[in-house]
């Protein structure tokens, strides 16, 4: 039986920003995961989003398949991806729906028909905007936590055109049969800057703090009502030269149906992610070459979703 992870709790609205930044630093160095409270997204809105999500996933498969993932927006059916190709499983037992940036001009999002789901788009757009603004507030505290100016990431242009992707997830919870290993989401780390996750109270999420140690030790992440579970992604791990960890995590099936909402914040596609000065020294040299954020993400998505060229 996995133990419970004791993740730190960060208060986004605390007036003591330096103390909060310090706690964030400690949380990111030790766990790469923490709870975020007082983030400004009301529980009432969160529960409406979960309701809309459940309505969408209850539509017949052929309705959902009318909105297949294109330009990284839309529906991904069960077993469409395998986050850990080394696991040899037939693909993760989850279905999802991606919503990308709500740009006025180039909005590539796909929406279910208003006839089927009349309040869907408005509810999801409201949630997207609120979670994006919480994520941006958190990024400025992360800058402080790295001994940088709190506007550092804005100043280097990372947030001029941030790539926020909201993903609704539905896990049927099936346990498979004894011969086949099945995961809700197999072991992975997230690709981008940070992820803000809302869960519905059904267990399943686990983290592994030491990704290079065998055997892997998994700890359960409990649901905290109203809080986001935040984790550092690989791009921040690169930016910080591994000072902040992008922690391995997975979702185990429990036999219970489960819903979650993951918001992935990635920088501007043309932002160059390069080791921060505050994170390297002569005795701790830069570990990764600079990369262009958009190219890096495209490549990670290509590996996850197979050889299709669009991300
Ligand atoms: O559903 C969850 O709790 C986690 C989802 C996740 O890790 C992901 O989509 O990257
Ligand atoms: Fe993840």
Provide the CATH superfamily: B-lactam Antibiotic, Isopenicillin N Synthase, Chain
- Please tell me the total number of domains: 1
| N-to-C span | 37 Å
Order of helices and strands: EEHEHHEEHHEEEEEEHEEEEH
CATH topology name, in short, is: Jelly Rolls
Query: Which molecules are bound besides the chains?
Result: 2-oxoglutaric acid, fe (ii) ion
Largest sheet: 8 strands, mixed
Kindly state the percentage of residues in helix: 25-40%
Classify the beta-strand content into a percent band. 15-25%
Q: Kindly state the mean pLDDT as a whole number? A: 93
- Using the 3D structure, state the CATH architecture: Sandwich
Describe, in plain words, how this protein is organized in 3D.
With 311 residues, the protein is α+β, with helices and mostly antiparallel strands. The protein has one domain (9-305): B-lactam Antibiotic, Isopenicillin N Synthase, Chain (Jelly Rolls). It is 26% helix and 21% strand. The protein is built from seven helices and 15 strands. It has helices at residues 17-30, 43-57, 61-64, 120-145, 152-155, 234-239, 293-305; strands at residues 3-4, 9-11, 33-37, 74-76, 95-99, 163-171, 185-188, 194-199, 205-208, 219-220, 228-232, 248-251, 258-266, 272-273, 291-292. The protein has an eight-stranded mixed beta sheet with strand order 2-3-11-8-13-6-5-4. It has a five-stranded mixed beta sheet with strand order 1-10-9-12-7, with no helix packed on it. A two-stranded antiparallel sheet has the order 14-15. Helix 1 (17-30) links the parallel strand 2 and strand 3 (33-37). Helix 1 (17-30) crosses helix 4 (120-145). The chain is globular. The model has no long low-confidence stretch (mean pLDDT 93). It binds 2-oxoglutaric acid and fe (ii) ion (FE2). Keywords: Iron, Metal-binding, Oxidoreductase. Residues 161-267 form the Fe2OG dioxygenase domain. InterPro entries: DIOX_N (IPR026992), IPNS-like_FE2OG_OXY (IPR044861), IPNS-like_sf (IPR027443), Oxoglu/Fe-dep_dioxygenase_dom (IPR005123). It comes from Jatropha curcas (Barbados nut). Belongs to the iron/ascorbate-dependent oxidoreductase family.
